[in-house]
Amino acid sequence: MTVEKALVVGPSKIDIAYQRFGKDDAPPVFLLMGAGAQMISWADGFCSELVNRNLQIIRFDNRDIGLSTHIENVPVPDYEAASKGDFSTVPYSLSDMAADVVGLMDYLNFQNKLSAQKNNDQLINSYGLQQEHCKTDTERANV
Q1: pLDDT more than 70, % of the chain
Q2: Which of 95, 98, 104, 107 is buried deepest, with most CB atoms within 10 A?
Q3: For residue 136, what are the contacts with CB-CB under 8 A and spacing of at least 6?
Q4: How is 108-127 classified by DSSP, letter by letter?
């Protein structure tokens, strides 16, 4: 499967690497991977099974992962401080990542609802990202 790039996406103007499976007119499902894993962590067989159920699958690399934009020239986050609620050293937020998903949807001309499949290992990360998306785009949220 060919990797494509959405260029200058969302408010952060980043590039997002993605792959599409299925028919263009099938309902889209965006697969959100977390914890530093690349889009290819969504197994091809899993994607194929979803396509067999008449869905269009879009899997993508989040920012700082794989072939998407890597945020450079920022200090290393203070993970201990962040775990205590101080996010002053964190270069971007979950809200920024949710805006990336909406930006990718816009780039691909999806104005309809967003569905998201959660990998069991990434449940917390993906669920948090979905919650952020729902806060900012209630018209398209369907999780």
Answers
A1: 77
A2: 98
A3: 95, 98, 99, 102
A4: TT--S-B-EE--GGGHHHHH
Element (H, E) at 88: none
Helix (H/G/I), strand (E/B), else coil: 43: coil
Q: Cβ neighbours of residue 10 under 8 Å, at least 6 residues apart?
A: 99, 100, 102, 103, 104, 106
- Alpha carbon 85 to chain centroid distance? 23
Rounded distance between C-alpha atoms, residue 66 and residue 18, angstroms: 10
* Identity at 122, one-letter amino acid code: Q
Quote the CA–CA distance of 40 and 42 in Å, as a whole number: 5
Which range has the worst mean pLDDT, 81-90, 91-100, 132-141?
132-141
52-82 pLDDT, tens digit each: 999 999 999 999 999 999 999 988 889 899 8
